Amino acid sequence: MQLLLSVFIMTCVYSVLASGFVTIYKASRVLNFAFADMALVVGYLTATFIRSVGGPVVIPFIFSFFCSFILGLLIYRLLIRPMVGESLLATTISTVALGIILNAVAVLAWKADIQTITLGWDDYYTLPGNLRISGTEIIVVLFTAVLFVLLGLFYRFSIIGRQMRATAENFLLSSQRGIDIHLITGVAWGIGTFVTGAAGILVGAIAGVSLNIGGVIIKALAVALVGGLGSLRGVIPAAFIIALSERLVNYYINPRLSVTIPFVIMLLVLLIRPWGLCGTEEETERV
Amino acid sequence: MKRSYIEDMVLSAFDTPFRKRCLAAGVAVFILYPIFSPPFFVHISNLVAIACMGAMALNLVSGTAGLLSLGHAGFMCAGAFTVGILGSRFGLPIWMTLPAAAAVGALLGLFSGLPSLRLRGIYVGISTLAIHYIVYYLASEYQFFAGYSQGIRIEDPSVAAFAFSGKKTWHFLLWPFVWLTGLFIANLLRSRPGRAWLAIRDRDIAAKVMGIHVGWYKISAFVVSTVITSVSGALYAYYTNLAAVEEYSFYLTISYLAMIIVGGIGSILGSILGAFLITLVPYGLIYLFGLLRVASYLRDYLYALESGLFGLLIIMFLLIEPLGLAEIWRRIRTFFELWPFKYKPLMITKR
Amino acid sequence: MKRGIVAGMIMVGVLMGFARVADAKEPYIIGCQTDVTGPGGVNYTPVEEGFRVYMEALNARGGINGHPVKVIYEDNKSSPPRAAAIATKMILEDKVLGICLISFSHSHPPVYELAKKHGVPVIAPWSSPAGAWDPVKYEAREIFATGQVMHSKFDYLGYSAPQVLAKLFPKTMTVGGISYDTPGARIFTNWALRWSEKLGYKVVYRGDIPPGTVDATPWALKIVEAKPDVLITSFGGDLLVYLFPQLEKLGWTGAILGGNFTSLESFEKGMALLKKPRENIYMWTSTLPFGDIPVRGGEELLEAMKKHGHKFRPWAHHVSGWVTAGVVSEALARMEGQADRSALIKALEKTNFDTKGLMGGPIQFSPADHYGMTYTMGAKWDPGKKGWTKATDWIKIDPKEISKLSE
After folding, report:
1. Can you list the pairs that B88-93 forms with residues at least 24 positions away whose Cβ atoms lie under 8 Å?
2. Which of A205, B105, C158, C341 has the smallest set of CB atoms within 10 Å of its CB?
3. Is C241–A208 a contact, with Cβ atoms under 8 angstroms apart?
């Protein structure tokens, strides 16, 4: 039972990670391979803010959210926008290269050490059924729920959200309709980076930020794919499936296999139902 | 001047006297280089040779055929471990293990090609990435159980009592391999499969309509590429006497992709130029840092600086010259060709 | 082929760009490979720092008979192929006299192969195969170990941890063991648990965590189920941070006997995450946590660290690097005849290095023994003082005795 609880918590973390990935994919049709390193940098940044600023935990968080948003905008302006129209291979490689650069920055600035992030609520509670949960994990769950609700509302009801969906549907048509493509896509990258950074903070809160978290974060790629690359709704069930299978295999079969299982599932999904759980078939044709 | 179809179809690389002289110079460099260079530089040139093979293979599948392949390291790993297991555990000689590595590569290529029948673009890339992780896992399990996680130790291969040990011997083995691979791929590219791949890359639906068997050519692109990649991985394992899974991480795939992007997608010359540049960059940086007397704190993180500059290099190339070094070379060549004129004449001469 | 021509021309151009001056014979060149950014980075970088500080202090004093010691530091990420590539470069290009290897045990064998092939001495402060223990039997004249030796046939650490255990805990307690999923750590834990059973303890749990794991919940769950009274751990600080809070959350507060693999910063971060300060956290170590426990050699080390700068707070790991650098430099000073690799090997075989209290006794090598006597002690973490205190005296361990007993 405790195992299921930890599965639940990891589901939340994976969902947040994958939704950052999906947001950027929806906006630019680009597989953002730099997301693991983005989360790393933002995680380290937050740890440093908490250490140096102190005080109520919310302030460093707002600061780092802000920074990650700006980072996303910068990345879009400097890297993605000049590469509009280039081949798929080139854009993918550019995100990979960006990831390498961010990784190098993280190592140089924070010296490959491990940092912890405290969310300020550290008590342990006992839930019915003799399950133990810590305050940090409760915050993780709440944050995920709030984030998804906000994102859903944003996309559905706000003007920018609708414009983002329109741009994702059809670039040319929306630009002809007067939507400022560059601004919208930039904002989308900002949101995507911010979400990815938030996921990095969550991972840091549960487990500490270090160079090793890349291994955890890359599984979000599998989650995003299983859920459907273009769909936010599919992310949560996909995250659950992946987290569950990973934990079960780890506990009952072999810890080392649990690292590969997400990719095996991803491959199976690609072979059987490439558009994922909630994607549409046209998505796969769109590339 | 060509007087028959046969003459037209033959690979005409050495028709002019100038080219014949260049060929002689190239052969001379090839033979004299290991004799006059310090052993470390011969070692580097061997590494470049292996990189060339891999880069050409990757350029075939991702550049010419347009099928993004992110599983390159996995294929090399498969070749290396095949050779390691068969060579060390079962003691088979090299002329049996290399074909075995090629066969394993072909099998993997077949398997990787299957998703490409149904998917396109990024999805093909992701499926090859999944295959990479699976191969990595299988290899690391084997390494874990078979030898204290230290990798498989491979003896120097020997053919009929002649042992291939020492950097110079490998130089004379590897570069002919590169040459043969290049010849093979050039031949493929100028004949039917090459044209089919180009058609598939540009618009596969139109290719299908024209009567090209898209499925067959997609899979064959993968198979050819993975066979070459796997053989290059096998040779690398024999050369370094070690087959260890840590070498074949995703980072290796990225370096190969960088090679073909920086070098030039879709051309053999591009693969070679890219392989040279990307392999030499880390050594160049080390040399540079040695010259500049970097502070001892920073030296700890030389690797991070190195990889950061590597990423920066790739991005700069992508932004400034997306067609890569091959394109730069073509521009230089055109400049000298046309000099003192600036623009190409209307009549386009066949190259 | 045209590409061949182009390739040839570029090769020539590269060669010209790499034109170099001939090596000067003056400095003694030593190579030092560490795992800086790999999975064991947090644990091994302080060792390299101890090494560096000694060498810099030595050079400040004028070097060895006027020869400065030039050390080439590289990051090998505990990856066997990378270690081999760096060793190739060090041997062929930098022409080092010896290589110091500081990384996980599985990255060592390729380097040993290369060292044997070229006759280059390798000095490992941490984990090394039995070649060091019996160089004659294993045909390993080139390999020396100043620290722990881990081999399937013999594991000094696996013996020493239960010795400390026996001094600290009654035999009625149950014991569990968890370690990194690397060959060295696995062997250590297997041996430690075997010896614990021989000494009369009951073993109830055994687990492995791959280095680089981030979420340790499954292992935590299994430990809590098995409920050992004492948990013998052999992994580094990063896992402490992940594992200990999980264990506390799930309600297990047993004693922990850890290895001194941990880096101090990670350990403190792990302790800071615990709700209630615990009095039952111990460590077995072959190097003294000299920052908290004063000793003569420690004073020297602290001074050198202050003078030449240090990123990490003084910790037992610095001792490993310091002592290794000391052994190497004394051997360099003792070299007879031409200053080359075989002279260094001969000099190393005569080592008798006084650790001045940092390691319990001197490090002594001989032509038939590249390992020597070792010592271990138990230290206890004092949550009030936030430092280490001595829990047992130095226990002397003779490897030859253990190997006789262990079969």
Report:
1. B88/B152, B88/B153, B88/B154, B88/B155, B89/B146, B93/B157, B93/B158, B93/B159
2. C341
3. yes
* pLDDT at residue A25, as a whole number: 84
CATH class of segment(s) C28-151+292-372: alpha beta
Burial of B81 (0-12, 13-18, 19+ CB in 10 A): buried
Whose tokens are 């899979």? That residue is B219
- Residues (pLDDT < 50) of chain C are 16-25
- Give the span between the Cα atoms of A68 and A225, in whole angstroms: 24
The reported pLDDT for the residue numbered B54 is: 94
Are C106 and B148 in contact (CB < 8 Å)?
yes
Which residue in this structure is represented by tokens 């120097």? Answer: B156
What ipTM was reported for this prediction? Answer: 0.84
Q: A91: nearest CA in chain B?
A: B318
- C234 beta partners: C179
pLDDT value at position C74? Answer: 84
Say how far residue B221 (Cα) sits from the centre of its chain.
Answer: 14
Question: Which residue type, as a one-letter code, is found at position A137?
Answer: E
| C-beta separation of C365 from C386 below 8 A | no
- The predicted structure's pLDDT at residue B12: 66
The pTM for the full model equals: 0.84
C263 phi/psi in degrees, rounded to 5: -85, 145
Chain C interface includes A105 (CB < 8 A): no
Q: Which amino acid is at C138?
A: Y
Question: In whole angstroms, what is the distance from residue B314 CA to residue A99 CA?
Answer: 12
Instruction: Return d(Cα B152, Cα C264) in angstroms, integer.
Output: 35
Candidates B118, B119, B311; nearest CB to A97: B311
Amino acid C76: pLDDT: 84
C-alpha dist (Å) from residue A128 to A10, A86, C223, C249, C250? 20, 55, 22, 15, 14
Say whether C155-286+376-406 and C28-151+292-372 share the same fold. Answer: yes
Q: Report residue B222's pLDDT band, with 50, 70 and 90 as the boundaries.
A: very high
Q: Is A211 on the interface with C (CB under 8 A)?
A: yes
For A131-140, what is the mean pLDDT?
A: 77
What pLDDT, on the 0 to 100 scale, is given for residue B48?
A: 93
Kindly determine whether residue B134 and residue A267, on different chains, have CB atoms separated by under 8 Å.
yes
Tell me the domains of chain B and their CATH numbers. 44-338 (1.10.3470)
Contact of C108 with chain B, judged by CB distance below 8 Å, is answered with yes
Segments making up each domain of chain C, as ranges: 28-151+292-372, 155-286+376-406
Domain C155-286+376-406 class, CATH top level: alpha beta
The CA distance from B96 to B83, in Å, is 9
Out of B123, B125, B265, closest to residue A274 by CB: B123
